[in-house]
Amino acid sequence: MRIGSDIGGTFTDVVLENTSGMFSAKVLTDNKEPEKGVFEGIRQVLLEAQTNWTDIDTFIHGTTLATNALIGRTGALTAFITTEGFRDVVEMRTESRFEQYDLNIILPAPLVERKDRHVIKERIDANGVVIVPFDEDEATQLAERLATGTPEGPYEAVAIGLLHAYRNDIHEQRLREVIARYLPNTPISISSDVAPQMREFERFNTVCANAYLQPLMAGYLRRLESGLQTSGASCPVYLIHSGGGLLSLDNAVRFPIRLVESGPAGGAIFSAHLAERYNLDTVLSYDMGGTTAKICLIENGTPKTANTFEVARTHRFAKGSGMPISIPVIEMIEIGAGGGSIASVDALGQIRVGPRSAGSEPGPACYQLGGTKPTVSDADLTLGRLASDTFRANTIQLSPEAANKALLDDIGSRLNLSAEAGAIGVTEVVDENMANAARAHAIENGKDVGAFTMVAFGGAAPLHAARLSEKLNIRQILIPPGAGVGSAIGFLRAPFTYEAIRSHYAELDNLDWNVVDRMLKTLETEATSFVLNAVRNSSEHLEIERTAFMRYSGQGWEIPVKLEDHSFETGASDDLIQRFQTTYTELFGRVIEGVRIEVLSWTVKVSTLRPAVRYVSQIKSGNEILVNQYRQIYDSAIGDFVKAVVVERDILNPRDLVRGPALIVESQTSVWVPSGYEAILQLDGCLLLSAIASGRSRL
Prior knowledge:
The chain is α/β, with parallel strands linked by helices and 699 residues long. It has six domains: 2-70 and 218-259, 2-Layer Sandwich (Nucleotidyltransferase, domain 5), CATH 3.30.420.40; 74-216, Rossmann fold (3-Layer(aba) Sandwich); 263-329 and 441-491, Nucleotidyltransferase, domain 5 (2-Layer Sandwich); 341-428, no CATH class; 497-608, no CATH class; 623-689, no CATH class. Helix 5 links the parallel strand 9 (157-161) and strand 10 (188-190).
């Protein structure tokens, strides 16, 4: 019996899977003590499955706590130590400006203030050669000063990031030993452990973020572990990391920065599993919950990955306005577009939705939990897509009156619109925001999103999937069973994975393959030890994937290129050039002749084997069912309210067909099937939505 738990900004999802089937619960997130929602969700699924805590074999967890701490700046008081002359790198950032013509641009403040940033006189060059030796006396004096603390209190964490430590970590290791003598109970992070990559701004920022999160995440994870044990569960606890694999709890405490984006990563794994099951080469994963919407591209059953991303973007989600983190991550775009996203009218009289969210406290106005601002959920309720009789949350009684009042007060009164017209505007704006994000993400990756199949999950995604697919010219949507808790189900499908990375710059013309081979074997040993320690099984069969991050000389960023061979022999450079050119052409349409090719970083990802996939053939025609339950629901295809059928998903059998306009309801979400679409239940319980009308608007 395995349990997956995902803490979101609004809801905490819990899924139990055993030999009897799958059971799920969705409870409001407790922002002050997030573990309370987890324990309540576990209690509910155990009761439904008629089992108890002692029967839990594995617990897999994902949380937004790390992300929220970075966004809200609620982490530890951290000291940062770097090489003399580089104290202000984390504040100066790079020369990039996310608003090029804004003369009053305000860059995001660093996690560590200048008064808490310290330097030592040491220097290692880009080849790893010591230029200025490590000074033991200076390091000892610095440690003594750190031990005295600050006027705000003692330091709760220490981050160490020295220049070129990714090539030679001897000074970072020694400095950690010295600091630990004077601060024995304080967590210390070093950049050569956390992010051994070139680009000092990103590396320094990542090690600062890791240290900043350590006390908070360690406290939370230990409370979670203790609470499970107190309740009778003696199972191991694993964490989903941002790269889509599992970490042991001890490794998560050591590297909490890898938990950033852990929940969305579970959703991408969920979609990838479905893509494999249906043998789909191209899938757009669409996860819309209560706070955010996440969109990810999946090809050949594998989510696209990267070795750096931004968190906590401050300026309309503009690239470059956030905090760069250098860790392996499933690449996706995330915007403030969830069921709880707050709608407003700006100075130009335009409806805006997000990025602020009502969250679980006070929640959307219709929840009657104290919220008064209009949200996407309020708009969906006013348009008939949500209703009290089909909204299966035990602690929430939806109020159409409260939703209408919020829409009139904040939208209608400003624009002279009715509550219904305001709700239409809110849903159209949020759907267009998501469509724009998906288009941009696809274009950045050189893809035509119209050729993809959408997999929609999360509490709000099935309500908006059809309209979003219209805007993106996508004609096929898969909505799996348990869509409302999709990310938590994805946790149960994730392998144990660890990705080790090193920067090693070289031009292909003079690359020493013996050095590369030794480095990759070292990375393989590092990653393998992490995985085997997590699974506690030295005989576990493992998958090994190697990647080189490459670019043309003069370019600012690199692209990932897969390496197939375990070791390198004569002709390896020619093979790697061909792989790079193929990948580059897929992304940008053509190669650049006559320009040198460089490799900047190398990674080795080690994973446990995934269970064999049970393939499912799509059913594209079925038998239309007859129902006698109806509701007035706004249909954007018609431009008016229509008489739509309401169907319980549980009564459907494989090959049953529901023709739009219709609403298919279930315990944790509802699927909106507009006019011109039909839904057919597949053999594995998925709903396949297909556009059947021609000439429909794609705007």
